[in-house]
Amino acid sequence: MNEFDFIEALKTLSKNKDISLNLSDDAAVLNNYIISKDILIEDVHFIYRQNLDDIIFKAVTSNVSDIAAMGGTAKYIMAGFGLSQKIDKKKLIDSLKIALDFYNLDLIGGDTSYSDKFFISITIIGTKNKYLLKRSGAKAGDLICVSRPVGYAKKYLEEELSGKNENRHYRFTAETKLGEYLGNNEGVTSCTDISDGLGIDTTSIAIASNKKIFLLGENLSELSPDLPIDDVLSSGEEYALLFTVNPLYFDNLLKNAPKKFHVIGVVIEGEGAYLLSEKRYERLSKFGFTHKL
Amino acid sequence: MNEFDFIEALKTLSKNKDISLNLSDDAAVLNNYIISKDILIEDVHFIYRQNLDDIIFKAVTSNVSDIAAMGGTAKYIMAGFGLSQKIDKKKLIDSLKIALDFYNLDLIGGDTSYSDKFFISITIIGTKNKYLLKRSGAKAGDLICVSRPVGYAKKYLEEELSGKNENRHYRFTAETKLGEYLGNNEGVTSCTDISDGLGIDTTSIAIASNKKIFLLGENLSELSPDLPIDDVLSSGEEYALLFTVNPLYFDNLLKNAPKKFHVIGVVIEGEGAYLLSEKRYERLSKFGFTHKL
């Protein structure tokens, strides 16, 4: 059973699709609350090299980003730790405090246990803003936008894996302010964060919205001029926001936004997500991180 | 840093004590919701022997029990899995379905990943009933009660560890109906579930309530006549409810309860929790399961 089939089978255990969003979005929604849960495991998601600040920051970022992707405001955290002998618990508390202060989160619960491999299991609870953003909702004619240049997470990770003492890929931040803004303003039709890669995540919006999406190669190259476009499309764990905007609202939305964002493509009738440039026309679903499971 | 100091340090990261209950209770409380998070790890909390039904049932029970201990009703579950190669994912779905059906839970989210050791990280969300039950609140003169005879979880676990193909210690059930009843009726002054052992859990009520508690040896022996009293006091993961009742409400509470429960001691002014019998007078804090962390 591959990951896809496993998730399809899990969906049969979800009765109330209004809450679970059919396990197809970044988080679950319970009345006014948005809840996300994520696991990070040593030697699967990170390499432990005494870099607790980095690891904890990334674990928290990954969950906060899920709340931002739904236009919510992250507020509470429950932290579960599987702690191996080598983890300095005092240092762990300090690292957790840094991440919680950065994102203004309040610790409200959790669990710890001994474990051979270090792992982190986080539940983040946020509150909804005016609009709940989902992957579904993109309409023909919408513009698809990204909150910042992407592709660098992959580059920095490769630098770490090649043995350089490189921690930049742990330090990407969740787009908390922009997520909150998008959840409070009219005209945003769908949203997700880039966790698996721009190619796969764009495809997920196209599928959920039942629309066709073109990403424009020239726009992407302009944003990340020093990176091959294949890397831009396949770089995961970026935590940039990817969202579609009704063009009638675009100017106003951009003008008042807490940060600049960038148009990288268009939504039309049809299905599938494609890279479109002068020289290429390719399915986007092949670009991105497919889980090992 | 031992477990106690670690949890004390974590408390400094909890700002809103109304929500976290200072990390001192069985779950956190967010408006109308009660949220509990628990991790179970292979070779720490269970031994994997193809017994997925048992393991998943126990993992879910442990979390549902936390909600019952607060007088709430468990409703939603987010399931995180660290899956090693040997886990049959189809079987895992079936096992999860059995547990969710048993407790009438709706799956609303989660996360899965590859992991060397199998582990389960569960977040359960319940709703509050009329009264929120905490460990604090016991008053002098209250009766302390247990929802069923205890001590057998330890006995069954030892049978498994001695090599018998014994799974009974996985099959204890959470007291969902009684928990809901206690949360809806007047006179219950404190409550927890027996997860670390009757001795330690009674002590936790005494400390949180700033009162002294006597457990009566003769009452305990009558309930579990075939077990040594030391085992009755130290058997963990029982998931029975342990609660104190204002004696003015006792008769009425017992008469209408969905199941019989049993008086095992009294609350008086003072501090500490003690076993009191014809032959013994001992501190209860030494009886129970202290975590390896």
Automatic annotation (TrEMBL), chains A, B:
Mg(2+) 4 binds at D26, S36, D66. Keywords: ATP-binding, Kinase, Magnesium, Metal-binding, Nucleotide-binding, Thiamine biosynthesis, Transferase. The keyword Kinase applies. It catalyses: thiamine phosphate + ATP = thiamine diphosphate + ADP. InterPro entries: PurM-like_C_sf, PurM-like_N, PurM-like_N_sf, ThiL-like. Mg(2+) 2 binds at D38, D66. Mg(2+) 5 binds at D196. Its EC number is 2.7.4.16. GO terms for molecular function: ATP binding; magnesium ion binding; thiamine-phosphate kinase activity. Pathway: Cofactor biosynthesis; thiamine diphosphate biosynthesis; thiamine diphosphate from thiamine phosphate: step 1/1. It is an enzyme of class 2 (transferase). The keyword Zinc does not apply. Mg(2+) 1 binds at D38, D111. Mg(2+) 3 binds at D26, D66, D193. Residues 25-126 form the PurM-like N-terminal domain. Substrate binds at H45, E237, F289. ATP binds at G110, D111, R135, S195. Belongs to the thiamine-monophosphate kinase family. Catalyzes the ATP-dependent phosphorylation of thiamine-monophosphate (TMP) to form thiamine-pyrophosphate (TPP), the active form of vitamin B1. Reaction mechanism of ThiL seems to utilize a direct, inline transfer of the gamma-phosphate of ATP to TMP rather than a phosphorylated enzyme intermediate. This is Thiamine-monophosphate kinase.
